[in-house]
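Researcher: Here's the sequence for the chain we discussed earlier.
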Amino acid sequence: MNVGKSENQLLPQEVSSEEVVLGCLLLVGVGDEQGKEWVDPVYTILSPRDFYRARNGWIFEACISLRQRGAGLDQVLVGSELSHRGRLEDVGGPAYLSYLVSRVSTPFHAKFHAERVKDAATRREIIEQAGQQAGAAWSGKPLTKPDTTIFDL
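Model: Thanks. This is the structure I predict for it:
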């Protein structure tokens, strides 16, 4: 019985929404009060590990770090933070940060896109946990109840 994903199937992901979320953060920064209302929920919805693309998670980590320090947040400052961490070229350099800003039509939808990213991350976690449980079941080893169930996610 073949249960699960096919060989050519990708894990759930919302890369376009990841890019829009990061573009919103870079565009709004910390100075615009109206914009902050739109992007602040992103920081409570997402964590860096929710991003499918590692480079997007690294950019989000840099945004969190700048925000926690009360520093400004824009393309140049995030680029500087990434450079300080030795990650600027890994993410695609300043050109990728500019690209992220270009993906935003309005920061009003930041929360919506963050929720899409979180949903995809939750689906990946469910698939990972189910795969671990299936592997344990197939192994013939004694099974223990998992610490968390899929529905605790």
